[in-house]
Amino acid sequence: MVKCVVCGKFLGPKEGVGCPKCKSRSHNDCVRVPVGVMVDYSWRCGDCQSKIPKERDPSTPVMSESCLDQAQSRKNPSVVVSAAKTCEAEASNDVVRALREERRSKFANMQNLMTSEFKSSKDSMSTFFEEMRELRSDLSAAPSNFNERLDAFDARLLALEIARDDPIKSVETSSLEQALVDVKLQLNEREQEYLLNDVVITGFPEQKGENPAHLASLLGVKMGLTLDERDIVLVEREGAPRRAPDDSSAPVGLYNAGSLGTGHDNFIAAMEKYSADIMAINETWIREGEIGRAPS
User: Fold this and answer.
1) Quick one: average pLDDT of 265-286?
2) What CATH number should be reported for the domain whose range is 197-293?
3) Could you tell me how many helices (H) and strands (E) the chain has, helices first?
4) Where do the structural domains in the chain lie, given as residue ranges?
5) Taking the model in full, what pTM does it have?
């Protein structure tokens, strides 16, 4: 690998600036040359520049030795004056030539700098145009995507309208509605069956702190039928309770709600067997106008 002449660091194969004279290479930052600028053949590195002999100031006219020899060889004053003028003209030409070379080198450097600037501007504009092209393609694709979504929505809406107006779908809807009506009728019939299990018992004297469920089960025992707790769903007095103990009005009847699949039929048969006006309270039978013990 090649080292930089200025800083002594290593350079890559394609990095740095090469000196046309000694073929040495240096970093662009070390020799203050922009990256990508091609140096002129007259450009020299630091080492080569230091080895060039110093010249006189071009702005100071100096008579050359040839002119002095010519003036000294000719003792004629007019010839000396003309020779001096000739030497001054040659010095002026050297100054003009030096200025021209300096301006030419400055113009070359300026041209290289402008070339690099224009190149970077061209790359930036190319990137900008590429981004604008992509944005334009996205904006062009947006309406098409929106139209596709609208078409899909219209298709779904049309399918729903067709399904609503389809007679086959209408028949299915009617069948479902009929099924709902049938279910309502079945539920109503089942509720009516539940009501058939309800029994109203009258004639029991109402007492304070009584247990209607116990009275209903005790009545079944007196009629020769044993009722389990699961056979009785609810037992309660109908209507408002009596306000005074000496109230002569008839006692409030007992409402007995039996459960399905129990001894409800046997309970009704026993009620029919012993007549509706026979009621049992504890161990005493009560008949119209007759009080006695239960027969064995």
Assistant:
1) 52
2) 3.30.70
3) 7, 10
4) 1-54, 197-293
5) 0.26
